Amino acid sequence: MIILAIFKKVLQVKESGVFTKKELRIVRENPITIYINGEEFVTLLCTPTHLKELAVGFLAAEKIITNANDIKEILVDKDKGLIWIELKVYRKIAKATYGKRYLTSGCGKGTVFYHLNDVMDIKPFPVVNKFEVETIFTLVKAVAKKTDEKGETAGGIHKAALVEDNKVQVIKSDVGRHNAVDKVFGSILLQNKEIKADMLITTGRISSEILTKSYAMGVPVVVSLSTPTALSIEIAENLNITVIGYVRGKKANIYSVPERIIL
Amino acid sequence: MIILAIFKKVLQVKESGVFTKKELRIVRENPITIYINGEEFVTLLCTPTHLKELAVGFLAAEKIITNANDIKEILVDKDKGLIWIELKVYRKIAKATYGKRYLTSGCGKGTVFYHLNDVMDIKPFPVVNKFEVETIFTLVKAVAKKTDEKGETAGGIHKAALVEDNKVQVIKSDVGRHNAVDKVFGSILLQNKEIKADMLITTGRISSEILTKSYAMGVPVVVSLSTPTALSIEIAENLNITVIGYVRGKKANIYSVPERIIL
Question: What is the ipTM of this complex?
Answer without folding.
Answer: 0.89
